[in-house]
Each structure stands twice: as structure tokens, then as C-alpha cells.
């Protein structure tokens, strides 16, 4: 059962659930437009400030692509399933080395068992609240690339396992099978296109390494962790849909760097998971108007969320 049916009428849910191809095109174009603008900005005015700004903006839009892939996993990005599959796979997932079908299976399990022992995302939320020192160590691992490198290594090993059980040191044939298979092979194709595009835009052969791989291993990991903490960290371990997840109100800077494409309205998303992201603010306002605001787990901003997540003493 959709949890939102306990709070909304079928007509209200139906009005919020309408998909739009125009919205889908706009959101994907917006994500890639900001990425390309950040690269061009550095190419026109190359200096340390524009370099750091580009890494931050692109890393945040890589999170944006992950969010749009999440939309496609719910068939909410476009009206037709075919468009959701193609755009979610090639324009959103593969560029950040993510697999849409695998993610959909994992994510729908999370929706079914939110904040229970069978929730596959419990490992992301259960460590919180923690201490400030522990949270600081996690952030340092993220921003220095340690988390990203570890995850990429795990992806390669998983691809090797899918290509065939591997014992000991993988051979060149094992590696060839893994990188030619669908899990990594399609990601290599997508990233080869990005490599060529960035080189053409900047005239710099290393642009992909600086403005795609570096953000993916650093800033993207940091904002991804902040997103995960905000959604289910330090909330109730229960089946109450108003208390086992959180909505975080976000200002324009937070929406640019931490919470693109209304991902901060996570409680509302769990109420009706097939509502397109651009309608989640309307769903939030509807819940407030119906008098449920005091019962909903909300935070005024991401700073407040992180303070709560790091509220344990030594």
C-alpha cells in the first residue's frame, strides 16, 4: 500500500502523479547544462577559483544525475517507460558509473522495508547519530577521494564476479570480460563520450580527469553522504512514514550544492514514491495544509541535520 493513501485522497495523489516529458527534458538538460557551463567557465577564465567552483558544481550535478536516475527508476522522469529507461541509463546512470536496473531493484527494496532490519540502506542511516569527530573523519575520507576509490574498486570486483568467479589475482582475460560486460562496459562508453566532449570544449586532454573523475571521487561523495544522512540519519527506527524519514528545507545555495532537484523533500517522496520530483513541494504544502506538519520529521536546513547527526558525546 502507498503510505500516502493514509493522508491523501486518490484524486490528490493522481493530480500530483502526472508525468511530463517536457519536465524530463528540462531537468536532464539543466543538469548537463550546468556541468558544461562550469567546464567552459574554467576554459575561458582558468584560475584556482574557477577550478574549485567547477569541481563543486559538477560534483553536485553528478549527484543531480543520480537523483534523476532515481526519478527514472520510479518511471517518474518521463511519461513513457522507454524514455525513462534510456535517459536514466545513458544520460544519468552510466556517466556516474551506476546501473539503473540494479539500482531500481535495490531502491524499491528500501522503500518496502524503510528503517527496518530488511532495509538495504540501513547501513547508511544506523550509524547516526555519531560524534563530531567520527563525522569529520567520514567527510575527510569523502573529500580526499578515499571513499570514491574504495567504491570504484568494489564495482570492478563485482563486475569481475559477474563475469565469472575469480580467485586470487584477476587475469587479463578476467579484466577484459569485466570491462566489456554491461556493468562497466556501458559506463566506459558514456565516459569516453564525456572525455571527447570536455577535450573539444576546452582543448585540454586532461579535462575529463579534472572535471569529471575528480569531482566524482571527491565532492560527489561528500554531498552524497550529506544527502543520505539528511534522508534517514538520526530518525526513528519505526514504520511510521512521518517519522522514519526526513524532509530538509533548503535555501538556494543548498539546492545548488547539496540538494538538487527537490531531493530534500524525502518524506514526501516516501509517502508517494511515483510523484515526480517537481511536484514534491506541492505535496509538502498539501500535508501542511491538512494539519500533519507537527507530526512530520523536518529540519530547517542541512546545518541543523548535520548538528543532529553529530550530537553524540564521546
TrEMBL record:
Q: Name one Pfam family in it.
A: FA_desaturase
One Gene Ontology term of the molecular function aspect: sphingolipid delta-4 desaturase activity
One CC-aspect GO term: membrane
Question: What processes does the entry annotate via GO biological process terms?
Answer: ceramide biosynthetic process
What PANTHER family is this protein classified in?
A: SPHINGOLIPID DELTA 4 DESATURASE/C-4 HYDROXYLASE PROTEIN DES2, SPHINGOLIPID DELTA(4)-DESATURASE DES1
Sequence intervals crossing the membrane: 23-45, 51-69, 183-200
Which keywords describe this protein according to UniProt?
Answer: Membrane, Transmembrane, Transmembrane helix
Can you give the residue ranges of the Fatty acid desaturase domain? 48-288
Name by which UniProt lists this protein: Fatty acid desaturase
Highest taxon, organism lineage = Bacteria
The protein's organism comes out as Roseivivax lentus
